[in-house]
């Protein structure tokens, strides 16, 4: 995550030598976190709120932004019946990340500006599994935790509307691959809306 921040800050520093419009942006999103590739065909799938903040600059029709996004928390449960008992559990998945997005504004010479973009991110993914195992006459409770940092990528499509010369409302849809490990992929997709203030 530190390396990505260094690259992003370096890009923003280069922009300061050009005629760039700096801006800050805040968003609140509603999205779905979903996994694929878990053992026994299981999956985590849950809806969550996704707040984010960003700082960026605009040069002509291009924007570059550095953001911090809290993807939220997903929960799931499972229950397997075995020959001499059962195994059940509750899984919690939390994810957050720092990303860099390149965005192209499609100039329509109007107050509404559609845009498309691509994003790279370093995401921290934490999975906690509360397990209960019953074998014959014994019951065992354990907790397994796994935290990893993964490179993610995604795309976004949206539009902004100029409320004032320096203030715009923004809405977008996004799709992100948060990370992959041991054949398991964590995905996030949803909608978000917010405000962007240009200095």
UniProtKB/TrEMBL annotation:
Residues 1-20 form the signal peptide. It comes from the Bacteria. One of its GO terms (molecular function) is porin activity. SUPFAM superfamilies: OMPA-like. Pfam families: Opacity. GO terms for cellular component: cell outer membrane. Keywords: Signal. Residues 55-199 form the Porin opacity type domain. Gene3D superfamilies: 2.40.160.20. InterPro entries: OMP/PagP_B-barrel, Porin_opacity. Belongs to the opacity porin family. This is Opacity protein and related surface antigens. It comes from Gallibacterium anatis.
């Amino acid at each position: 995550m530190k390396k990505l921040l260094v690259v992003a800050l370096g890009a923003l520093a280069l922009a300061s030598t050009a005629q760039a419009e700096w801006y800050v942006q805040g968003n609140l999103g509603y999205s779905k976190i979903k996994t694929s590739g878990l053992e026994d065909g299981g999956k985590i799938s849950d809806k969550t709120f996704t707040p984010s903040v960003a700082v960026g600059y605009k040069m002509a029709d291009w924007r570059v932004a550095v953001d911090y996004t809290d993807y939220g928390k997903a929960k799931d449960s499972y229950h397997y019946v075995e020959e001499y008992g059962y195994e059940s559990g509750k899984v919690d998945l939390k994810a957050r990340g720092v990303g860099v997005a390149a965005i192209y504004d499609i100039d329509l010479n109007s107050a509404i500006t559609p845009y498309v973009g691509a994003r790279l991110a370093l995401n921290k993914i934490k999975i906690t599994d509360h397990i209960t195992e019953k074998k014959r006459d014994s019951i065992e409770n354990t907790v397994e935790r796994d935290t990893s940092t993964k490179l993610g990528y995604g795309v976004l499509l949206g539009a902004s509307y100029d409320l004032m010369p320096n203030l715009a409302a923004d809405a977008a849809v996004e799709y992100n691959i948060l990370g992959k490990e041991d054949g398991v992929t964590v995905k996030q997709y949803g909608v978000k809306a917010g405000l962007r203030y240009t200095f």
